[in-house]
Amino acid sequence: MNEISARVAPGPRTSPGVGTGSGGGTGSGSGSGTDAKAVPAPTPSVGMADPLRRNARAIRMLWHREVVRFGRNRVQIGMALVTPLMFLLVLGTGLQATQSGSDAGFDSYRAYLFPGTLVMATQAPAIAVGISVVWDRQAGFLRQALVAPVRRESLLLGLGLGGATSGALYGGMVLLIAGLVGIPYHPLLLVALLEVALVALAFTSIGMLAAVCIRRIEVFQVVVSLCLMPLMFFSGAMFPVGGLPGWLGVAVLLNPLTYAIDAIRRTLPGDVHMGGYADGPAIFGWTPPVIVELGFVALLAVTALAVAARRFSRGE
Fold first, then answer.
1. What is the distance between the alpha carbons of residues 63 and 67, in angstroms, rounded to a whole number?
2. How confident is the model over 256-291, as pLDDT tens digits?
3. Where, if anywhere, are coiled coils annotated (predicted)?
């Protein structure tokens, strides 16, 4: 007979086992008497995705959700475009007709209103994303999403990018009628579309900030309307910002949308300025370049998104 001796080499302690020999004796060993082999410990990455990949997937899924929601709601698309188009074609045409031929510089007032109309078109996605956040909280979707092993900032970023994409699509539809107001179709319109997307991200971030602080849809709609309308009126969308009274001039300079609309106006091809008036913001006589104005808008978007994420982490 073959005699088997169970010998265990010194090493890490293992669970004791009992091995039987040919002589009926018992001996302590590892397992059933065979040589013990160290089993490598699984690495942390086995069985789980990389955190960065998980967050990127969450951002993409929420972005896709908002874009699909935008595409399926055709009635909302049509209704959201009514206000800016009425603002542009009716108000612009009426004021231009009353001042045509005078020295007031209203001969191209519709073209002057066009940048403000582009920005106004991005308000609808901001309100829609905010409403979806409030509704998802009431329906329990947010609590289910918070169980996922992703950062909460990623959830808000995905929603924000979805709203920015929807806003850019709204702006693209408004850009299609640029020729009706005397703005030529030029590759610079694509640059203006990117600027509109940045403004849409800022609007959406503001909407999400309001949504994480407000738990009722009715209150949210009232608060957002009261915030967005003054931002539009104090932005120079309807009148030049040069030569305004002191208090009004200060309010215009403190408004981030002033710089957004001026950046778009300076980017658009053709004559979109009102003759005889300084229609751009000036800070102590200094007119900021377009890249600086866009930096102000980006700062607004990042700040609102960061505050919303911080509030979202504490409040849910």
1. 6
2. 899 999 999 999 988 777 665 666 788 888 889 999
3. none
Residue carrying the six token digits 């702006």? 171
Q: Residue for token digits 């004796």? A: 25
Cα–Cα distance measured from residue 168 to residue 122, given in angstroms and rounded to the nearest whole number: 7
Within 8 A by CB and 6+ apart from 163, the residues are 66, 125, 126, 128, 129, 200, 201, 203, 204, 207, 208
Phi, psi angle pair for 223, to nearest 5°: -65, -45
What are the structure tokens assigned to 284, written together?
A: 């102590």
Please state whether beta strands 26-30 and 16-20 pair in parallel, antiparallel, or not at all (unpaired).
antiparallel
Query: Residue 10 — pLDDT band, cuts 50, 70, 90?
Result: very low
CA distance 177 to 139: 39
Q: What is the CA radius of gyration of the chain?
A: 31
What burial class does residue 64 get, using C-beta atoms within 10 Å of its C-beta: 0-12 exposed, 13-18 middle, 19+ buried?
middle
196 close to 167: Cβ distance less than 8 angstroms: yes
Q: Tell if the pTM clears 0.70, that is, is over it.
A: yes
User: Is 262 within 8 Å of 282 (Cβ atoms)?
Assistant: no
Alpha carbons 124 and 81: distance in angstroms, whole number: 9
C-alpha 280/C-alpha 259 separation (Å) is 8
Using the structure block, give the residue that is written with the tokens 């900021």.
Answer: 288
DSSP 3-state percent helix, strand, coil across the chain (nearest 5): 65, 5, 30
User: Residue for token digits 């009274």?
Assistant: 245
